[in-house]
User: Which sequence fits this backbone?
């Protein structure tokens, strides 16, 4: 079965492929000329994921998978949340988003740095069916970026029970415990 991943993010495509494994022919929006760009305008991760998956499935006539994920920091009342990718502005880089987050958390003690990564995956079929799966990973925000792996807030996020950031740990460990890894394993059941 061919499944279109509603993203052009090469990091995300590789991560999804590693977790989902074989049995599916994965394609990304980069493989389709004229594939729709669907803005993330929803108020929840689920709304954004469903909107993207549905639009891509309809436009391309193939099953599509979309995710929306982000970082929720307790001391910031859940921010950056659904605005994680645009936290420092519409075209902000990962470094700019990380710098803004660290600036807002400057001086906060360890016990006030709790956070979680949350991910919702939607799978949509051209006939209009949509199903979702969710995952979350609890942790805390480091006081400075650490590690060269991963992307986004990975250099700042230390998962519960670990001393390394997502950017410091290998992909195998990260994919096993991450929010996206959890959601993808649950999403795999949507094809059964």
Assistant:
């Amino acid at each position: 079965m061919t499944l279109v991943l509603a993203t052009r993010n090469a990091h995300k495509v590789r991560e999804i492929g590693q977790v989902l494994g074989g049995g599916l022919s994965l394609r990304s929006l980069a493989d389709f000329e004229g594939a729709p760009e669907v803005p993330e305008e929803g108020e929840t991760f689920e709304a954004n994921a469903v909107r993207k998956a549905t639009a891509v499935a309809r436009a391309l006539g193939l099953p599509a998978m979309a995710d929306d994920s982000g970082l929720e920091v307790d001391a910031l009342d859940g921010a950056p949340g659904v605005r994680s990718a645009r936290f420092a502005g519409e075209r902000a880089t990962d470094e700019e988003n990380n710098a803004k987050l660290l600036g807002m958390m400057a001086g906060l003690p360890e016990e006030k740095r709790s956070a979680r990564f949350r991910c919702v995956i939607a799978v949509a079929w051209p006939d209009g069916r949509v199903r979702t799966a969710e995952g979350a990973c609890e942790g805390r925000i480091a006081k400075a970026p650490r590690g060269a792996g991963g992307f986004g807030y990975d250099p700042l996020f230390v998962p519960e029970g670990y001393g390394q950031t997502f950017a410091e740990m290998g992909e195998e460990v990260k994919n096993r415990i991450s929010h996206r890894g959890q959601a993808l394993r649950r999403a795999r059941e949507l094809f059964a």
